[in-house]
Amino acid sequence: MSLTVQKITDRIVARSAKSRAKYLARMQQAGDNIPDRKQLSCGNLAHGFAACEPATKNTIKMMNAAHIGIITSYNDMLSAHQPYQRFPAIIKQAAGEMGCTAQVAGATAAMCDGVTQGQPGMELSLFSRDNIAMSAAIGLSHNMFDAAMYLGVCDKIVPGLVMGALRFGYLPTIFVPAGPMPSGLPNDEKARIRQEYAQGKVGRDELLQAESDSYHSAGTCTFYGTANTNQMLMEIMGLHLPGSSFVNPENSLRDLLTAEATSQVLRITRQNGQYTPLYAILTEKAFVNGIVGLHATGGSTNLTIHLIAMARAAGIILTWQDFADLSKIVPSIARVYPNGMADVNHFHAAGGLPYVIGQLLEGDLLHEDVTTIMGQGLHRYTQEPFIEAGQVVFKAGTVASLNKDIVRPITEPFSLEGGLQVLDGNLGIGVIKSSALKETQKIIEAPAVIFDSQHDLQAAFDAGQLDRDCMVVVRFQGPKANGMPELHKLTPLLGVLQDKGYKVGLVTDGRMSGASGKVPAAIHVSPEAAIGGPLARIQEGDIIYLNTHTGVLAVRLTEQELSRRSLASADLSASHFGVGRELFAHMRMAVSTPEEGATVFRFEDFEE
């Protein structure tokens, strides 16, 4: 085991000792009551299975057969979640074949950042994560179940489901992916048309056709954004079946994997003798493995927020410094768009996660001695699923990259450091996705151009006011200001300026999508402008310095000069109503900082 990885893990364990101990004590006490439904009165239980078939009712009455609660994010508007329509029937059949039962316990909201980019609805996106956690808890609050299966894929859905699941951490738990859509329009062609549209070279019809050719069927988007980073995390943290994350929805293997996931979660129930609760899987070591995977694959910057919130739900305290220190020693061994031209289907075909996990284990960068849904040891996740005689079997994955332009051995990395960096300086603390940047873009120094709205930036771009070296500052975009929307709509605009030869960077207290990376972007800057953070003191023309090598984000002013500045303000009232935003006012008031997970939850495990 890498001494540095072990040292970072040890300090997380020490930092989390009190809160983790409280969490584990509560989960272990709750686990003593499995099956939950034995606590129910006859009237309670009758309500719980009233709509079931007689045979199912009889099985549920018997406490010696496991009963699965399904939490689903199915809807048929979003491509990533549409395949889940058929999954409950598969799960129920597979459970029945093992003499067990399953019910859909509840559903969660599942919004799409792709639909809401640049729209008012995006200001609900981050808060939807905590709403999803609560929805999952409501579904499981009926105390009917011995195990749980979670059907979710995209940006806030998986982190929210994990947070909710951890409050029922005494239940054996498995996450079930739906898979990516087949490859469509190549990513470089899509990016080219987006930039040409931004410059007025092509019209809306051409742009819509390109987008339709990219996002064309059921499944997740194929770039390596937040949704697919979530899938990587669930696999490397031991909550997916090995090699299952990137199997397409219509592949015949997909439904067999769902049935196998059902069988596996039943195998690890108390009734079946291999009791493996979620709290035994999501440990400090598992979260460190997740961060290592994030760096090695150049995953989404959103996970620097979500992993912290997820860990806190388990009584584990992560910091951005943990991310930064791991980034220094974890090499980048995958190139998937936006870090390269390949999509996740190409990545999967080139060896995918089984190969990456094998390489990271070989480099002593992952904790192998962890518990997963497959049992002890992460080595099981170097395997891939195959179909034999109509059943899923797991065999050793490739030990050699099938395309070194996409995945490389750990001895020949694309970069010696991970794809995410933590920045610090007199403007606050933030993060940057550096894996897609060219060497000439990793140090930027330029005058500030200041906007309090992404829409104002669009107007300035259209007027030609940004045709110069500049550091674009988009502030008042933090969680307390307006819910911390993603600002990915800015990427084509800034990309055009960069392609013209200008030195361009972005500094914001908002978020960028997992699809960002072409333009140097210091994001999640905290403390945010709305609560008096340093970004509120920046003035037009101030020289801002960004260095991804040294992790510095600073304005070229002395502390005395900066502190003497008055704080700018912004009228945020328009962001507080419309498309339901008024319903989330309490969340804007209660939300924590991004480096604390940007969550409204104050888990009692942390109270002294």
SSE blueprint and pairings:
Blueprint: H1 3-15, H2 17-31, H3 42-49, H4 54-61, E1 67-72, H5 87-97, E2 101-107, H6 113-116, H7 125-140, E3 147-151, H8 157-166, E4 173-176, H9 187-198, H10 204-214, H11 226-236, H12 252-267, H13 278-281, H14 284-297, H15 303-313, H16 320-327, H17 344-349, H18 352-362, E5 371-372, E6 375-376, E7 383-388, E8 391-396, E9 420-425, E10 428-433, E11 443-451, H19 454-462, E12 470-474, H20 479-482, H21 491-499, E13 504-508, E14 521-526, E15 543-547, E16 552-555, H22 559-564, H23 585-590
Parallel strand pairs: 1-2, 1-3, 3-4, 11-12, 12-13, 13-14
Antiparallel strand pairs: 5-6, 7-8, 9-10, 10-14, 11-15, 15-16
In short:
The protein has 608 residues and is α/β, with parallel strands linked by helices. The chain contains 23 helices and 16 strands.
Task: Provide an overview of this structure.
By secondary structure, the chain is α/β, with parallel strands linked by helices. It has 2 domains: 3-182 and 217-396, no CATH class; 420-596, Glucose Oxidase, domain 1 (3-Layer(bba) Sandwich), CATH 3.50.30. Helix content is 37%, strand content 14%. The strands form 4 sheets. The protein has an 8-stranded mixed sheet with strand order 9-10-14-13-12-11-15-16. A 4-stranded parallel sheet has the order 2-1-3-4. A two-stranded antiparallel ribbon has the order 5-6. Helix 7 runs parallel beside helix 8 and helix 9 (187-198) packs across helix 21 (491-499). The radius of gyration is 24 Å and the shape is globular.
